[in-house]
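Lecture 7 notes. Example A: sequence first, then its structure tokens.
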Amino acid sequence: MPSHTNPAPEALPWGAPALPATLHPDGPWTWPNLVTAIRLVVGLVLFTMAALTGNETLNYYGLAVYWSLDIADGAVARKLNQETLLGGQFDILSDRLLVAFFYLNELYLHPNMAVPIVLFLLQFMGIDHFLSNQYLRHPGIISPNYYYLVDRKVWQLNWSPAGKAFNTGLVTLLLIFTGSPVLVSAVVLAILAVKVYSVILLQRRPAPAA
């Protein structure tokens, strides 16, 4: 089976985690998966309550749970060396569900933001989801966080600390604090351009070895 080895520590891209020397057996029963499950359940409860009551504060609480525990489950996985392919997929799918609930609630509460919200969901639920699953084509890569071992530019644009902040955090904060359809739409279009460019870069790569 093809595998990947880490570059020397000084050659790692800034903010990139080192691939574990040994991989945890794949399976559902890990501490990070428990954190992800808590994140999913609590987040969905808060977002559902926000939808039923029209309480935007609850929507923000759900977002806070999503963001904080999204950071926590990755940190726990790396600390305990419990990263798995199943855990990576569980994390990605949880992200889609929680982000969709948050943005659909915002759409209901702020219909003037329909254009940027629909555009954002289009790229996040479609193009970004496609990109986030490309690591599965490369044996030895256990999550998008290690995609720099395949393509550094694509990793930097999408899963580096700066890439993650630009792709999700920035547009959400602008949505909350500015309420400007024009500004948020401009940022979403920039994100869409980055995603399309990333897909083009991946299409130019040779197919992974079997």
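Example B, a different protein, same format:
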Amino acid sequence: MTDFIYLASQSPRRRQLLDQLGVRHVLLLPHAAGEEAEDAEGLEAALPGELPDAYVQRVTALKLDAAVARHARRGLPPAPILCADTTVALGERIYGKPADARDAARMLAELSGRAHQVLTAVALQAGARRLAALSVSRVRFAAMTDAQIAAYVASGEPMGKAGAYGIQGSVAQYVEHLEGSYTGIMGLPLFETARLLRDAGVLRD
């Protein structure tokens, strides 16, 4: 049993959620000095006709592959490596991170007054074992006016977030209904993540 894990994610929300579980973690991020840049955006490109659940699980597996290679390349001490990826889907349409403010406003206008899915895949490499889980939640936004969308976009909060919003932020005032995992919508479903960490011997009951 190890006393820490590596977290291959730049998301401060995932760090916060691991802290909530009491799991000590060390960041395992790309772009260390002297290393070649990794194509993070390329990993997140959707394949033609790819369904949201297949997409988010494939991207998470690719991110974990890259993190495992990064760990080996750097000669770091052994410990489980955790990756996660979140996407928003309206029907079969995938909403990733907005390219800019205009793109964020477009996404929010399309989600306004409608129900959509938030899918977060989690994968853990523990030695030779790879464990994985998928959390699927449903969120319905109330109708948002153009002015409300513009104000939210101007706050900067939508940038870097799938579907152009963070459930833990001010957009929560427009969430009419939610089914599923609140922490999964934030980016790391704690029920599924804790189960994987128990299976790997990181958490004990």
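Note on Example B: Residues 97 and 161 are 5 Å apart (CA to CA). The two ends are 13 Å apart (CA to CA).
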